[in-house]
Design brief:
heterodimer, A: about 200 residues, three-stranded antiparallel sheet, globular, B: alpha/beta, Purple Acid Phosphatase, chain A, domain 2, six-stranded mixed sheet
């Protein structure tokens, strides 16, 4: 199965409707050709995002073959050393990676729309509080090709967001740092890309 | 037909009476606490629960790894109790290590306090909380074998324990869980960090998780769920036949953290550090919640639900 399984209706609705509006009902009413072309544009945006993710994974797998797999059980210092070895190889393979290379420009408004839709209203505020549970110093900013800061616990990501976001391969996951959405390489603890101001203020 | 039977008050009163009459026999506990220095070894000299031969006996611990004296005190009670109640394993409901996670942190916040259990061969099976790094999944003494969600069959009785990663509940994980819960075991016991039901003023019920997990639990024969995150002890009244425990004061504690007006609480304690001793024997699950002085603050027995036909 493709790692991407999108809830197109919810994404379309997230883009088209005000925060808090019922998603499915609105999406169901978009029977026009305009809505169809909108959907096609969004499908294309997610396909582009998937292509960039696949490209990262292919590169990652290629350059990290020299790193022995970590055993299922390993002491903390061995895990850390493994992370650093992966980081060095991946960063070395994409030394000039910049923000927006994976979170491509066409997909960013879609992801923001999902966040806005799911994180608004009373339920949304609870989710937002959960994401922001651990205070992050304002001076601490996620940067591409840097290690996710050790002093900041990984943010929780509520189920409705994970359900609405495009699925990722096992090596990657979504996290938030401050208001930014981070694409994190799990085993390297490396920030692959950042999307600023993903969370509603 | 869902059945649930709680004899909490009677058992509680009996346990208290026995404990009080026995006093706080502390002698042997001192030697058993090992590296848990400074802990009060005032464990009850009675054996709680039925403590039947052939039953599955385990502990539940959550929100504990802060390296404080209070954590060590509670750990000492676990070690002391284990001398009379031979628990074979410990399941953790997350926030296993707070703050730094260097080798010395694992020693100070985990290996030293629980040395008396680890040395006796008691296996910990961790789940991850929001303060835990993914690297913990590879830490040998947490027995996660690199997995952030997993299940295992208990060494005794027909029990499957299911560790869920509630901090990052992907659809893929939920599909996996669906499969796990379709097994035929008598007891399916999920444990994880974020509570679907909690009276916590700080966190409270995680409604998103409830929405996705509860239907799966109900469709299966889940009868009890162990969670943490809120830093107190709470046993909910059965919710649609399922009892939810919050065991989030294994080291941390939020005094006054329970909102007494939620209507959820059967028994709550937000003044003590608490761990749980649990025993499964055929269709019954017995539990004690035990504080840092060894006093039993809640106990009861729950009969397992049958799978809906």
């Amino acid at each position: 199965m493709s790692p991407f399984r999108l809830s197109v209706a919810s994404i379309v609705a997230a883009m088209l409707v005000p925060a808090g509006a019922p998603v499915i009902g609105v999406a169901a009413d978009q029977g026009t050709s305009g809505a169809t072309s909108e959907r096609q544009a969004q499908d294309a945006a997610f396909a582009e995002f998937k292509k960039e993710v696949d490209g990262y994974i292919a590169l990652r797998r290629k350059v990290t073959t020299s790193v022995p797999a970590l055993p299922a059980q390993a002491p903390p210092d061995a895990v850390r050393a493994h992370e650093v070895a992966l980081q060095n190889l991946i960063v070395g393979a994409r030394p000039v990676a910049k923000e927006g290379e994976v979170f491509v420009s066409r997909v960013r408004p879609l992801l923001r729309g999902i966040c806005r839709q799911i994180l608004s209203g009373p339920e949304g505020r609870e989710r937002l509080a959960q994401i922001r549970e651990e205070p992050v110093q304002p001076t601490l900013r996620a940067r591409v090709n840097e290690r996710y800061p050790d002093q900041v616990p990984l943010s929780a990501v509520p189920y409705p967001l994970l359900k609405a976001f495009p699925r990722l391969p096992d090596e990657l996951e979504y996290r938030f740092l401050g208001n930014d959405l981070v694409l994190l390489d799990i085993h390297a603890r490396l920030i692959v890309d950042v999307m600023r101001d993903a969370l509603p203020r | 037909m869902l059945t649930s039977r709680l004899r909490s008050v009677a058992v509680l009163m009996t346990a208290w009476a026995i404990w009080l009459s026995a006093g706080s026999a502390a002698g042997p506990a001192t030697a058993q606490t090992g590296a848990a220095q400074g802990a009060k070894p005032a464990a009850p000299s009675v054996v709680p629960l039925p403590n039947r031969e052939g039953s599955l006996k385990f502990f539940v611990l959550g929100d504990f790894g802060n390296g404080t004296r209070e954590q060590r005190e509670l750990a000492a009670q676990m070690v002391a109790l284990r001398g009379r109640f031979p628990a074979e394993l410990v399941i953790t409901v997350g926030d296993n290590i707070y703050g730094g996670e260097g080798p010395n942190d694992f020693k100070r916040k985990f290996e030293d306090p629980y040395q008396g259990l680890l040395g006796a061969g008691v296996k910990f099976h961790a789940s991850l909380g929001n303060h835990d790094s993914r690297a913990q999944a590879r830490y040998a003494l947490f027995n996660m074998n690199g997995r952030t969600f997993y299940s295992f069959k208990a060494p005794k009785q027909d029990v499957k324990l299911i560790a869920i990663e509630s901090d990052y509940p992907t659809p893929k994980q939920m599909e996996w869980l669906q499969g796990e819960l379709s097994g035929g075991e008598d007891w399916m016991i999920p444990y994880f960090h974020h509570p679907p039901y909690s009276s916590g003023k700080r966190h409270g019920s995680d409604r998103d998780l409830r929405q996705v997990l509860e239907p799966m639990f109900l469709k299966s024969n889940v009868t009890v769920v162990f969670t943490g995150h809120d830093h107190f002890y709470e046993r909910t009244k059965p919710q649609k036949g399922i009892t939810y425990f919050v065991a989030g004061s294994g080291g941390q504690l939020r005094r006054g953290g329970i909102n007494r007006r939620t209507g959820l609480t059967a028994v709550g304690n937000d003044t003590d550090r608490v761990f749980m001793a649990v025993e499964v024997d055929k269709d019954e699950l017995f539990f004690n919640a035990i504080n840092q002085t060894g006093a039993i603050i809640d106990s009861g027995v729950i009969e397992r639900r049958r799978r809906d036909r």
